[in-house]
């Protein structure tokens, strides 16, 4: 049973960049999730995106998380993407904003949930507290400097992202930043700010599973949504994200809708 208040979670995300919520899932949901994952043919670093299953939809549409996101955004929130993992990602430290971002900034939120006990043996989350307060690597928001007409688009994206990861690793070392590692019980939730520096640690035992489930949330009305490293050579890709379950686009376009959204954006800067 969750005892931490929605206000406390939101305050921790704003202040520290993350919030840890113990006992977020009940035992029945954990058991059902583990049963579903046992039969999935997923290898290390593989994932299922946007799984169509009511069990996982119910997790993504948790009233508690939606209320946290609503308070964080100051408007309604919608889940737009889910990722299901059987093994640890071993992903190097990054910010979610390098993959997709919004204008105004920070109108996203993410929630990772442990579906089994997590420790250094099977690979933890790693994160750097307060790193969301550091300046972002803004040149990667519009990665034009990485154009190379001799490279195929997939190679170009991979090379640009690799350079981004390496730059973050050098910065972590230069600033002597110290990641934390989240060892936790099944059912624990970790909510983080879109600019928090985070990743997945290398497990000590790579044969062990680490069941986990991630949902990304976005404000349902205001933002202009950008997706990076998949755009045109000179621009990121503008997208209209979809509600996770209904697959309905969040934003309506047209002169009146655009004017309304523009007015909201302008009021945030007055």
Fold and architecture overview:
It is built from 6 helices and 12 strands. It is α+β, with helices and mostly antiparallel strands and 270 residues long. It has a single domain, classed as Sandwich (Jelly Rolls), CATH 2.60.120. The chain has a 6-stranded antiparallel beta sheet. Strands 4-11-12 form a 3-stranded antiparallel beta sheet, with no helix packed on it. Strands 7-6-9 form a 3-stranded antiparallel beta sheet, with no helix packed on it. Helix 1 crosses helix 4 (63-73). The model is unreliable at 143-150 (pLDDT under 50).
| Silhouette | globular
CATH superfamily: q2cbj1_9rhob like domain
Q: In what order do the strands lie side by side in the largest sheet?
A: 1-8-5-10-3-2
| Category from helices, strands and their pairing | alpha+beta
Largest sheet: 6 strands, antiparallel
From the alpha carbons, calculate the radius of gyration and give it in angstroms.
19 Å
N-to-C order of helices and strands:
HEHEHHEEEEHEEEEEEH
Briefly note the CATH topology name: Jelly Rolls
Topology:
Elements: H1 6-16, E1 18-21, H2 27-38, E2 47-49, H3 54-60, H4 63-73, E3 77-85, E4 100-103, E5 108-114, E6 125-127, H5 153-174, E7 180-182, E8 189-192, E9 198-200, E10 212-219, E11 224-227, E12 237-239, H6 255-267
Helix pairs in contact: 1-4
Q: What would a concise description of this structure say?
A:
The protein has 270 residues and is an alpha+beta fold. The chain is built from six helices and twelve strands.
Spell out the key features of this protein.
single chain, 270 residues, Jelly Rolls, three-stranded antiparallel sheet, globular
């Amino acid at each position: 049973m969750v005892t931490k208040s929605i206000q406390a979670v939101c305050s921790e995300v704003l202040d520290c960049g993350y919030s840890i919520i113990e006992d977020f899932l009940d035992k029945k949901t954990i058991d059902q999730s583990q049963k579903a994952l046992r039969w999935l043919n997923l290898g290390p670093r593989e994932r299922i995106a946007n799984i169509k299953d009511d069990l996982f939809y119910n997790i993504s549409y948790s009233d508690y998380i939606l209320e946290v996101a609503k308070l964080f955004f100051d408007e309604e929130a919608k889940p737009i993407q889910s990722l299901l993992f059987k093994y640890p990602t071993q992903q190097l430290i990054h910010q979610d904003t390098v993959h997709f971002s919004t204008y105004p900034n920070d109108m996203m939120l993410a929630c990772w949930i442990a579906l089994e006990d997590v420790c250094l043996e099977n690979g933890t989350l790693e994160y750097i507290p307060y790193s969301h307060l550091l300046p972002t690597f803004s040149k990667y928001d519009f990665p034009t400097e990485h154009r190379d007409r001799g490279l195929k688009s997939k190679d170009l994206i991979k090379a640009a992202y690799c350079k981004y990861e390496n730059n973050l690793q050098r910065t972590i070392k230069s600033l002597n930043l110290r990641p934390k590692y989240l060892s936790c019980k099944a059912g624990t939730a970790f909510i983080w700010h879109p600019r928090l520096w985070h990743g997945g640690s290398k497990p000590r035992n790579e044969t062990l599973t680490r069941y986990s489930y991630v949902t990304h949330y976005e404000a349902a009305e205001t933002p202009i949504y950008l997706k990076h490293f998949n755009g045109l050579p000179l621009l990121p890709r503008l997208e209209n994200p979809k509600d996770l379950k209904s697959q309905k686009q969040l934003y309506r376009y047209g002169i009146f809708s655009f004017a309304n959204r523009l007015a909201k954006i302008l009021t945030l800067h007055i």
